[in-house]
Amino acid sequence: MADYSPANSSANGEDSMSITSQKPSTIAVWAGEEKPLAFGAAQVPIVQSAPFAYEDMDEWAAVALGQTEGYIYSRNTNPTVGVFEEKCRILEGGEKAIAFASGMAAISNTLLSLLSPGDRVVSIKDSYGGTSRLFMDTLPRMQIEVDLVDTSDGDAIDAAIAKGCKLVYLETPTNPTLKIIDLDRAIRAAKAQGAVTVVDNTFATPINQRPLEFGADLVLHSATKYLGGHDDAMGGVLIGREDLVRKVYEHREICGAVLSAFSAYLLLRGMKTLDLRVKKQNETGLAVARFLNQHPKVASVFYPGLETHDKHDVAKRQMSGFGGMLSFSVDGDFDALKRFVGGLKYVHRAASLGSVNTLIGPPSVTSHVECTAEQRAALGISETLLRYSCGVEDADDLIAQLDEGLKSV
Predict the structure, then answer these.
(1) Residue 182 bears catalytic tag
(2) What separation in angstroms does the CA of 314 have from each of 154, 250, 290?
(3) Count of Cβ atoms closer than 10 Å to residue 398 Cβ
(4) What is residue 338's three-state secondary structure?
(5) pLDDT tens by residue, 144-194
(6) With CB atoms counted within 10 Å of each terminal CB, which end of the chain scores lower, N or C?
(7) Which of 71, 87, 125, 128 is catalytic?
(8) Is 311 marked active-site?
(9) Could you read off the pLDDT of 24-64 as tens digits, one per residue?
(10) What domains, with CATH codes, occur in the chain?
């Protein structure tokens, strides 16, 4: 089998001027692209080919058996996808990275390749809706024990892990209620039990938070969101320990949930401005959250950058920015919510996040559309909660239209 991503290589031992020693804004532009590109291209070419041909049978065999670098078939590896993987690997500081067709493909392939019948996994009640469905439906059907713990209770998380488990799955900030997990504490508890720790870093991005630096074994993203940033490409990525990533790769190779070359190209294009976008969205998110938090027609606001957030101190310790995502509840019923959302301008009512455009929607049609109303209630998600993803528009303009919209509540 060919090396699953020839572009991936450990950063250990590289000189002080290597890309790994540069700041995130430089890494986002140049990682994976330091060497001359094919045909002298200034941007990564789209290698839109399923198979890769060899005139020499011995060379073909050497690549196929993993004895030398190369490409055989795009379900295994692809040059354009390889550059995307390398950029993500360096941004997160991992040993290896592999890409997927979507964020859920990254999550499901990771869990299904690392867990077996009889294993026990510990996670939280507030994870993304698709992830919650895996924990509540899919894994139990496979005879895998799942313990979903109160996200805000560090003692309960420690106690659940201490009972013994194969894997600990964390998400921070959480989707959609922006709860914060103390990564240092939870990862130390997992290591004490020899458990693998996986962290969904989609909301934070590697610009605001790098879980591998806290000792996590694996970190994953829905690249559709902040990494791509333009709502025009779907993808997912897993980064971390080489041995674990290779195991997930072998599962993905058979399941076929691979990222296309064209989607990788779009994600690479979006990542050039990742640092710029996220820093702008950090500023806007905080400004919008502060405005909503003092508004008389807003019942509650969830944003880790607010001093009123119950884990604000933890967020300050492990994040360099608080992100562009927040959620809030209007002080009214679902009809009031519909009037408010329907009257907003310069916002997409759509089921995504992390884009240059601001997006809004309730979890019932966004993050937790896969769940029933009863399941959402069990997860503590109100039907009048709204998820708000700040784009890169002017913060004052966004606040003005929210203020005008709230008059309808």
Answers:
(1) no
(2) 11, 36, 19
(3) 22
(4) helix
(5) 999 999 999 999 999 999 999 999 999 999 999 999 999 999 999 999 999
(6) N
(7) 128
(8) no
(9) 999 999 999 999 998 899 999 999 999 999 999 999 999 99
(10) 19-271 (3.40.640.10), 274-408 (3.90.1150.10)
Q: Quick check: is 200 catalytic?
A: yes
The number of residues making up the chain comes to 409
What's the rounded Cα separation, in Å, for the pair 85 and 239?
A: 8
pLDDT tens, position by position, 123-145: 999 999 899 999 999 999 999 99
Task: State the pLDDT confidence band at 6, using cuts at 50, 70 and 90.
Answer: very low
Residue with tokens 């993987």: 85
- Round the average pLDDT of the chain to a whole number and report it: 93
> What global pTM score does this model have?
0.94
Catalytic residue among 166, 210, 225, 280, which?
Answer: 225
Pairing verdict, β 120-124 and 145-149: parallel
Token couple for 374: 């009863």
Upstream peptide bond of 176 is cis (omega within 30 degrees of 0) = yes
Alpha-carbon torsion (355, 360, 365, 366), positive or negative: positive
**What distance in Å separates the CA atoms of residue 381 and residue 386, rounded to the nearest whole number?**
10
pLDDT above 90 covers a percentage of the chain that reads 85
Instruction: Sort 407 into a burial class: Cβ within 10 Å, 0-12 / 13-18 / 19+.
Output: exposed
